[in-house]
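Record copied across here:
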Amino acid sequence: MRILIVEDDAAIVASLTDLLRREGYETEHADGQDAAEGLLAASRFDLALVDVALAQGNGFAVCAAAKAADPAPAVIFLTASDDEYSTVAGLDMGADDYIAKPFRARELLSRIKSVLRRTSGASAALRLGDVEVDPAAAVVRKAGREVQLTALEYRLLLLFAQSQGRLVTREHVRNAIWDSAGEYVSDNTLNVYVKRLRDKIEDDPTDPQLVLTVRGLGYKAGPAAEGGAR
């Protein structure tokens, strides 16, 4: 999952970035309205954490830009303004939640997960070559035929499908799939799980075209011509 942090307080940005990345999320940062709108136009995000009172622009305009994006990310406002007017105004603009500063880390993570559960259920199907991932039903099909994956294999595939064209480091895979459960997974073990996934979704697992290995770094999902070493 990719989260855009729209905040002009450097200390809060550093704290949020560290917290979210330890939970396995990818993050980008914008310190004002123009920067946020540029990132929303150029990249896909699952959620935007937006401060209302920005030094450059305002969070309500960023929310409007987010909701106009295709696909539109969920939006959670983070702000010191917790009065009823600001809350109602934010929700009326389409925000999915509204959290007043200062906030507690565990509460924030819980609210993020709750919003993402609600919004991901409405997500459109993702395609990776001839493989289709339907997040709403947690169903995977290859060339129209359903593929039976374990829960872990499904989570790996969903991570790769959501990250097409971008490098997914081994560390990020481990953080996203295992670290939240307190488990440690070695590179060799990760290789085994990726091989099992390839056995089920690749036409020829010995010559992968969908999940490619970028040597020494991690993986890249997409056509082999774009992915480097296999």
